Predict the 3D structure of the following.
Amino acid sequence: MESLYLRTLVEVVKAGSISKAADTLCVTQPAVSRRIKFIEEQYGYPLLDRSGQMLTPTNAGKLVFEKAVKLLEIERELLSGLKSMRENKSIAFICTPTFGVVHLPTVMREFMMEYNDLADLSFMFDNPGKIVEAFRDGMYDLAVVEHCETFDFSDLSTVALPGDEMIFASSPTLEVPAGNITPDALFAQNIFVRKEGCCSRTLLEGNLRAIGRDLSDFKSFVVLDDLHMIIQLTREGRGLSFLSRELVQEQVDAGQMLEHRIDGFKHRRNRTMIIHGDRQHQTSTPLNFFIDILRARFGLPAA
């Protein structure tokens, strides 16, 4: 049984509802429901009492919940122990794909000019919810996430970075008027979206729900987990996309793409750097140099 399913059950029991647990885990409600169904089928018992206004654990659910909490704690201790075995010259970094595409190459070039012989480097991409989970489990030293959700970072060491702007982008060949437009002007087009859990899709679906619409209102929606392919297909006029302006800044400036906004939609999202508490106070380390590069990248003074 993957810990993901146990963690989902724990969050549902704590929250008392699928929707609140989905917000905490930064996934959709159907995704949480599927995970609960899977774990119930695996164990052969209903784990949640759904008869009341709030979800409560059944007797079997209480047993699984108690054991799941212990197992997840053991997993956190294991990962933290393994992580502490690494030398201070190692860096395990994780970020959201937008940051990885737009900023990481430049950051890495500057970093490698100083530490070109550093052997133990790990760079991973994932969606915001999974990054925060992995960070709390002790798997990474440093993370940068763009996020539209309001995470509880109270137990983590964080630095607020300048956020970015989400826009609809299209090729001029689609003849969609640039600038502020109505939703109906976009619904006649195909749209490329990321997989569930990705911030851009979460923000887009939240905006659509606010006006009583969803992705099915577009001519079609195509799920792609490759930002480069989404940008390429958008530039070719195969459809439009909802993504960070940073990703298409050059194409917009060159007139190869148009940007669109909808009044009332949320077009801004936050960006946060998370630093492992055990390593942030170490001095003269590759990690601190990497952090200083990130801070300078966004116009922040060195710590």
About this structure: The chain has three domains: 3-83, 86-162+271-297, 164-268. The CA atoms of residues 102 and 247 lie 6 Å apart. The radius of gyration is 21 Å.
